[in-house]
Amino acid sequence: MSALLKTPLHDRHIAAGARMAPFAGFDMPISYRGIREEHFAVRQTAGLFDVSHMGEFIVRGKEALDLVNFVTSNDAAVLKPGDVQYSCLPGSQGGIVDDLLVYRLGEEQCASGEQAFMLVVNAANIQKDFHWIESQNRFDARLIDISAETALLALQGPAALSLLHELTAIDLGSLKYYTFSKGEVAGIGNVLVSATGYTGAGGFELYLNARDATKLWDALTVIGGNHGLLLTGLGCRDTLRVEMGYCLYGQDIDETTSPLEAGLGWITRLGKSDFIQRERLLAEKKEGISRVLTGFILEDRRVPRPGYHIIGESGEGIGQVTSGTMSPTLNQPIGMGYVPLGFSHPGSELWIEMGGKSFPARVVKPPFIPRN
Predict the structure, then answer these.
(1) What's the confidence (pLDDT) of residue 222?
(2) What angle do CA 317, 322, 327 make, to 5 degrees?
(3) Is position 352 within any domain?
(4) 58 lies in some domain
(5) For residue 137, what is the DSSP state?
(6) Within a domain: residue 170?
(7) Count of the separate structural domains present in the chain
(8) What is the pLDDT of residues 177-194, one digit of tens each?
(9) Cis peptide leading into 360, omega within 30 of 0?
(10) Which CATH number covers residue 343?
(11) Is residue 326 part of a domain?
(12) Nearest 5°: phi and psi at 18?
């Protein structure tokens, strides 16, 4: 069994007393002071996550756009330098190899006539994604894995703007959702500051050289003391993303789920030029899908867990839970799972089988709470 990988901030987590656990091959902090307290810090003030386990690839070359547009479902041609886009990598069987972020980098980073993008992929899929994209690369473009040399910090919550403003001259207020800028932060040059996140609470993600990660982490935690900042782990990252109905790769989406079934038709631009599985997805849209990822709320206090059976009104099994948690904000159990279209309408009643008993659930359309 191979040893767990460590992010550049591993020693900081140990020193802060984090509860650590394996995740995607890394030894990662699950919580510091408790999931519920950290969850509310992100919703009400600010939380700081180490997500340096994520993968980053650079795509560069005269046909970089052609490669990105061929392997992703969204239309990267609409991106201007400084724009970010959520997308997915359709697989050979019509499922999803991974979901990812696409960053359109500035031309100043390229040789004459070249284009450049950064792709941010899930930690567990770094090698798989790299080999998949490489296998599809018939273009004048180079794929470069910069994951090991890149750190990623997520500063999330309503106080993130005022906190980060103390450490940078970047015009953070002008950064619209899903855009980014580069500049100096806490005396560290060339930090990419992105108005993105996986929490629905607003804030920023900061990409930088791994060697500078501890310096930035320390600066944020010192300044953060005046803004209600808490260190936050993957435990509350999960409760936060489920409240927003955000998919987690390996649970809600994988190579057996199509983006249309997962409610990701909005990132599947079937009208653009050829991309992997376009014809298959066009046919799927024309014929109609038979199941869809659906959200639900339970009145009971028991928490639905991945793999629990979803039951229809006649007692028949109609699906399985893919994600579930006790929502700290709602103080109710919530979850998601794939069910036939006829059971997916908001207000419909389902039952979740737990411990040999069935508990009623009401279908709702995510997000479960308003986004900040």
Answers:
(1) 98
(2) 115
(3) yes
(4) no
(5) -
(6) no
(7) 1
(8) 999 999 999 999 999 999
(9) no
(10) 2.40.30.110
(11) yes
(12) -65, 145
